Structure formats: C-alpha cells, structure tokens
Amino acid sequence: xxxxxxxxxxxxxxxxxxxxxxxxxxxxxxxxxxxxxxxxxxxxxxxxxxxxxxxxxxxxxxxxxxxxxxxxxxxxxxxxxxxxxxxxxxxxxxxxxxxxxxxxxxxxxxxxxxxxxxxxxxxxxxxxxxxxxxxxxxxxxxxxxxxxxxxxxxxxxx
Length: 158
Fold this sequence. Notes:
The protein has 158 residues and is mostly helical.
C-alpha cells in the first residue's frame, strides 16, 4: 500500500488528540492506571504516524530545515526536557521513594509493610521457581534468582 495523506493525516490528527488528552488526564491524575497504558501505546503509534507524515512531507520540511526554523524549537524542547528531568531527579515522586525503601528494607519488615504473609508469599515464589533463601530484601529475591522484579512483586502481593 502506498503512503497517502488521506490516511496518514486523519490518523496522526486523531492519535495526537488521544495522546494529548490522555497526557492531560495523567497530569491531573484522573483515571490513573487507565490513561497511562493508553498514553504509552498510542504514543508509540503516534511516532509511527509521525514518521509516515515526515516521509510524505519531506520536500516541504527540507525548506524549513534550510531556513533554520527548527533550531529554536529543538533548543526550547531540549531545555524544557532537561529541566524536567533534573527536577524529577532532585525531587523523586513519593510513591517511587516508598517503593525503593520497601524493596531495600529487611524482608520481614517489607512483608509487614505490604501486609503479606511470609509463608504464603514464600510458597507462591517457590511454586514459580523463585527461591527466597539467602534473601535479606525483596530486591535480593529477584537478584539472586535472576528474575523479573515485577513478577517477584506480583507473586509476593497476590
């Protein structure tokens, strides 16, 4: 199928709106958990549509590149992005701070904080081939077993 503006333009427009709206919902923490997956997946699709859009409009874009009009945009977006990253590094979100402290806490304390029965969690992990022996923290469990951290946490908190 040949690239055609009559398909790409509507897709990129509608996906742009969906990504924008889901981003706004995420910013205001509305429908948390639902908007994130929509935003991420449609964000990837938006990139695909944008690549096709660039291919279709390459001649016109080259004119803009020659005029240097993209340089201020690039510098502005880069500055904002770096600033946001630095602010995030200096002030991590509370939930990330708590999760990091829980996974590095002594395992019995972490299980108490998560309201998890040690023997039940140990049994679920063992049933999935994950040993809890020699683990001092939850983090040790996935490191010692070369396991996926998310899977370990899911098994512990089931």
